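tool_call: predict_structure(chain=1)
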Amino acid sequence: MSFNPVFENAVVAKPLQGVWRSRGYGWIVRFEAAGPVLYHVAGEDCWRDPRSEADPDGVFKLWRQAGGGVVETAGDPDGTLYRFDRLKALPAACLANAPWTPQRTLSAVADTFAAYYPLSAERGLDWSVRRREAIAALGGSPTDADLWKALGVLLRGIDDAHVELDGVVDGQPRSRRFGEAKVLLQAQGRPGGEAAWGRVWRDDVLAAPFKARRVANGRIFWGREGEVGYLAVVTMGGFDAEAGDDDMVALDATLDEAMAAFADAKAVIVDVSNNRGGYDLVSRRIAGRFADARHVVGSKRPAGVMAVPQPLTIEPAPGPRYLGPVWLLTGPITVSAGETFVLMMRSLPNVRQVGTRTRGALSDQLPKPLPNGWAFALPAELYRDSSGAELEGRGLTPQMPLPVSASDAPGGGHAETLNRLLALIQGR
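tool_result:
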């Protein structure tokens, strides 16, 4: 079923005008003629999104009827589908103007995680217990410093790359991220920190036998050693510094050149062991360069609600492709859209995943900004592979284990990893 643009002649499509509540994600949207107005729902609370953009997360560009008073929206025809049920009116809580006290902020965060955080029971996360302990830590007359401490109690022990917390304490901004690969945490404790680690990783790739070129705004490396090609992608986006998010032209030009160079290669290494994520649309676009046909690779659905899973597919790219043997190198840094790329690639008959297990954070990150200037974020989706296995919090395990990025080596010892894999492919 095809999509329609949300705006028709600069006005929101008439059938879409009104109030809608999402299935999952904690959104209510009021489509006025002039555009969408987004609200967030958590427990009994509701607040208007404070960001200046009408569609800050880019989910209200397209829409279509789904039957029975339900519509689906998307930011792209191949992107995530969001289902909404029509409401008669905006809930009264969304119109209230209660102050944003520390108690209200804590409740909003706790209620959102309790409703939408994926696989809480499986992860041993009892949000009712955590909420009580956080309230106790907050105290009776809390300051912002008390709130920051209480939120730390609520989210203690979580190891998730998509959980974030931002606040202001005593006039100073504070930020906390709740998940990072151990190899990067260790690098952060060394002289030069993670930036030094990244430079050594880059130098390792450039010094490897592939004679790799660093292109696409430094986000892609590719080269070839004899009959083996090499392609490393470090982010799923950012390939043109001047193009912003619309940098597919730079990506396609780079992939055209690399695929042409790989045309008669006996094998290609695709290295996403240092991929920090980005956009699933980019992951799908790159995976299409290795696809022989259309493949259903798995599914995704919003957490916390009963919802029909959305199939995840890849299609062969229209440009040059490589359909020979591919060795897909992954590691504990591989995260987010890097992991959806692995999910897509693993479905192809010519691809074998080698290395170590990925991070286990495939879900899109769900931002939740608050009117008081604080904000938090969490994952709110569940991904499954084509066999039905849950992947969130678990990651994707290689078919062939291979040590990657030894944590006690400068730069993670990536040159050694590449030489070991090249020898394996060449039968040495």
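agent: The longest strand covers residues 35-42. Proceeding to next step.
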